[in-house]
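As promised in the previous annual report, we have extended the structural survey to additional targets. Below is the entry for Urease accessory protein UreF.
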Amino acid sequence: MDKLLPLLQLCDSNFPSGAFSHSFGFETYISNEKINNVETFRDALCVYIQTQLTYTDGLACRLTYDFLEKKSKEDVWRLNEILAALCLARETREGTRMIGERMWKICREIYSFNIWNDDKKKRGYMHPALVFSIVCYRLQIPKETTVLSYLYASVQALVQNAVRAIPLGQTDGQRLLVSMRPHLLKAVQKIDTLTEEELGAAAPGLEIAQMQHEQLSVRLFMS
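The corresponding structure token record, generated without further manual editing, is:
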């Protein structure tokens, strides 16, 4: 039971990681009205879960946990460098860096354990999937629970941002989260079967939308 409370804190939408400032390309779709209601957002979110969230963030979260179990710190940092290279859109790359750095800083301050000494100072970029996995590993949260929690927190942040941007009703947002549960559970099962060679498969349309975001004349989000 004592492991549940810190996990709930990490996944809380009020956790000040800065995720509320980023749409990761979804605002481009909202701006050109490809996403304009609950149904179109649900469809886009399902594609995001099945592609980028599964094959990049989710797989990275699981691989990090695997490497930690093997005490292979260098493999974690190698994975971190791969993730930085995979992120083609500048705003999205900067957004993930800021979220990762903020999460790292907060977790170092609120938990008594030293996450990994001062290694981060030598590395610069820090992907939030790695930070989340490192923290959960140190908190002795099971691997599958760690991956599912990270996926849920990512989707929850996007839903809350869609409530503001489309806009949607708060109840609609909560219904969306409920409807995403089967997709998240399926994603965790898929992630468990993937190898490192499959890391980075993504939806080209979303990557293009992430690149186009910085050209929008009016924006609510940083990415």
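The chain has ten helices and no strands. The chain has a mean pLDDT of 89. These points will be discussed at the next consortium meeting with the crystallography subgroup.
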